[in-house]
Design goal:
- The longest helix has 24 residues, at 49-72.
- α7 (120-134) crosses α9.
- 70% of the residues lie in helices and 0% in strands.
- The chain has helices at 3-11, 13-29, 32-44, 49-72, 83-99, 103-116, 120-134, 139-146, 169-175, 177-187.
Length: 193
C-alpha cells in the first residue's frame, strides 16, 4: 500500500467498520490466519495500540496452545497452511524476548521451535539464533554484524524470518556443534515428553 492508500483506508468509515467486524469474528473463532490479517491491518494503519495488543495476545495464546498440542503428539510444523502462522507467532515472540535482553526466554523459545519445525533452512537459522542467545549476544549487534541484509530471493513464506548471514551457515553450525548439543541437552526438559 502506498502512503496515500494507507491514509485513505485509515479514514474510510466503511473499511474501519469492516475491520472492526472482522476483528470481532477472528477473536471469537481464534483463526490464526485471520488474526494475523487483522493485526497486519491494524499495524499498517497505525490504529489503537490496545486493539493491536489484544490481537497479538490472542495470536500468542492460540500459537502456544497449538504448539503445546503438536509437541504432545510429536507432530512437526511445516511452512504451509496455518502452521506458518504458529511458527511466525513463536518466532516473533522469541525475537521480542531477545530484543529485551531476555536471553533465557528467547533461547527457550528458539529451542522449542527447533524441535517442532520441519524445514532445514529455517532450522539452521533458528539454531544460529539459539547459539547467539545462549552466548547472551546483543540482538542489535547480532543483526548489524552477522545478518546479511541483502536477503536471498525465496518463496514468500520465508519472508517473516531472517535466514541469511555474513558467514557460511553450515560451517558455523559444524564449528559450534558441541555447544548446540549441550544447549539441546540442557533444554530438553522443556519439552515435557
Amino acid at each position: 500500500m502506498t502512503q496515500e492508500e494507507i491514509i485513505k483506508a485509515s479514514t474510510d468509515p466503511e473499511f474501519l467498520k469492516y475491520l472492526e467486524q472482522r476483528e470481532k469474528e477472528v477473536l471469537e473463532s481464534k483463526d490464526i490466519k485471520g488474526l494475523y490479517e487483522v493485526l497486519d491491518s491494524l499495524l499498517i494503519l497505525d490504529l489503537d495500540e490496545q486493539r493491536i495488543n489484544k490481537i497479538y495476545e490472542a495470536i500468542l495464546i492460540e500459537a502456544f496452545n497449538s504448539i503445546e498440542t503438536k509437541l504432545k503428539n510429536n507432530k512437526k510444523l511445516i511452512l504451509n497452511s496455518d502452521d506458518l502462522f504458529y511458527i511466525r507467532a513463536f518466532y516473533e515472540h522469541s525475537i521480542e524476548k531477545w530484543s529485551r535482553d531476555d536471553f533465557k526466554g528467547a533461547k527457550e523459545l528458539f529451542f522449542i521451535l527447533t524441535q517442532i519445525v520441519d524445514d532445514d533452512l529455517l532450522l539452521d537459522a533458528l539454531n544460529i539464533k539459539l547459539l547467539a542467545c545462549a552466548n547472551n549476544e546483543d540482538m542489535e549487534q547480532f543483526y548489524d554484524t552477522k545478518v546479511e541484509h541483502q536477503q536471498n530471493a525465496r518463496d514468500e513464506r520465508y519472508g517473516y524470518f531472517l535466514l541469511d548471514f555474513k558467514f557460511d551457515t553450515q560451517k558455523y553450525l559444524q564449528e559450534n556443534i558441541t555447544n548446540l548439543k549441550n544447549i539441546y541437552t540442557e533444554l530438553k526438559p522443556l519439552l515435557g515428553v
